Amino acid sequence: xxxxxxxxxxxxxxxxxxxxxxxxxxxxxxxxDELVENLSLNENRESDESEEEEKxxxxxxxxxRKRKAVxxxxxxxxxxFSVFKSSKSVEATVKEENExxxxxxxxxxxxxxxQQERDALFRKEHNIHVSGNTVPSPLIDxxxxxxxxxxxxxxxxxxxxxGIKQPTPIQRQAIPILLSGRECFACAxxxxxxxxxxxxxxxxxxxxxxKDGVGAVILCPTRELASQTIRECKKFAEGSKFCIKLMTKxxxxxxxxxxxxxxxxxxxxxRLKLAIRKKKVQYLVLDESDKLFELGxxxxxxxxxxxxxxxxxxxxxxxxxxxxxxxxxxxxxMHDAVRVIIRRKNTASENVKQKLVFAGSEExxxxxxxxxxxxxxxxxxxxxxxxxxxxxxxxAELLVDDIRVDxxxxxxxxxxxxxxxxxxxxxxxxxxxxxxxxxVINYDFPDSTSAYIHRIGRSGRAxxxxxxxxxxxxxxxxxxxxxxxxxxxxxxxxxxxAIGLQKKKWKxxxxxxxxxxxxxxxxxxxxx
Length: 528
Ligand SMILES: Nc1ncnc2c1ncn2[C@@H]1O[C@H](COP(=O)(O)OP(=O)(O)OP(=O)(O)O)[C@@H](O)[C@H]1O
Fold this sequence. Notes:
Blueprint: H1 6-9, H2 20-29, H3 32-45, H4 51-70, H5 87-125, E1 128-131, H6 143-149, H7 153-161, H8 169-179, E2 184-187, H9 194-205, E3 214-219, H10 223-236, E4 244-246, H11 249-254, E5 262-267, H12 272-276, E6 283-287, H13 289-292, H14 295-307, E7 314-319, H15 324-333, E8 338-342, E9 352-360, H16 362-375, E10 381-384, H17 388-400, E11 405-407, H18 411-415, E12 421-424, E13 439-442, H19 449-456, E14 466-473, H20 480-489, H21 496-499
Parallel strand pairs: 2-7, 2-8, 3-5, 3-6, 4-5, 6-7, 9-14, 10-12, 10-13, 11-12, 13-14
Antiparallel strand pairs: 1-8
Helix pairs in contact: 2-3, 3-4, 8-9, 9-10
Adenosine-5'-triphosphate (ATP) is lined by residues 164, 166-168, 171, 188, 190-196, 320, 431, 433, 457, 461-462.
């Protein structure tokens, strides 16, 4: 018996003589289905067939019908007639298959729920709060960037070289969200590594040195922050071919923006629209989003969002303060976005020890500052005032004291450690990352709670501890309540009497203050 037919004939009593014609035909074709067909045709021609053979043929017919019904090929069984499964056995097989599928599904479901439980516990442990449809699991460590997302070793090495060993909570959650192509709006404390949270997915997903338009756009509210973000991006991308550009006035003047291309473009909202019009932007980040959404810039932001018309764009919003109106705006422009809050929304960093000092008057403030320098202040110190003019005035006063002081135009000197005290306005209150600032002094009371959170957040960054001193005068007292609440919720000692103050709607508290000067002057005189 030929190899090809052996399993079909095993155990079958077959009268080859009587069916010699058909048998030879069958041998030629060697097709199992053909054999079944022939056997069935022969039933009519050979009326004197033995009972046993008739039974055999009947079984073949049953088998044929069954095979048609289930659409399967020949059975894998090799023993006798078990090859022609009965209707019962087919049903059993189907049932078995169904049971197997159900079991597999329920195991997958179980696995999914177990993973969700683990994620929930992990998020709780790291103070990560999320809302949105099936949020991707947070990162356990940076190594997961390669195991889960195929991150190149170079990026991980760069992070390690920068001393970035473990992801911060915002990085643990926001990176997988953005890598999964989901949009997100995130609120995480100052100095908690939001920059890497949005830059890392770009460096993993964008093709370096692509000439195909602008891969990613990072919008910052100030030039100072944009320059810093560029520096950070370049550090993370060290050794790669990424083209990372800062949008400057010169660039706008020189370049033919219709042909302009780069991988990551960092810019303030001004004039960005021209550079990205008709370009296939894949990532759009609004850093310090609440500042960007402030009324003055809203129109420009709207234009930029519209200009980024790539339907598969991934947009994200990041800030340490996320007011409700920004959330509402975010929801109108984003689809299926995930909301990520680290710790509690709109709270000051826990790493900053906050203190309120009553100075009575403007003169009292200067005395209190001098006293602090004489007694306890360790550089570097960052002092915030409410205007450039006041920065000039205070600078002149501190120069007299022979303190190594500079004004916000001298940010680089301060960064390099050449000056120990920097007097600044709110222009550098957001996002600026000065290493190891020991103390922030709010010489002039901040004009809003979010300004307070961002100002004092220049200290206590990347897990370091810091200090913040806020001087206040009589006219600031009505606005103390919110600051005291901030102190309370971030674990600093707070004046409980201030919590009991009447709630006041805080609209840019920037009173006209007396000139900063200790030189005697006529009573009632006010310098400009
Ligand atoms: N995983 C990490 N481990 C250690 N340091 C980190 C990590 N991620 C970022 N950093 C460092 O922490 C510092 C603060 O990061 P970053 O400026 O991104 O904070 P931020 O959350 O954007 O703050 P802000 O709200 O003030 O803008 C930077 O010096 C950065 O290099």
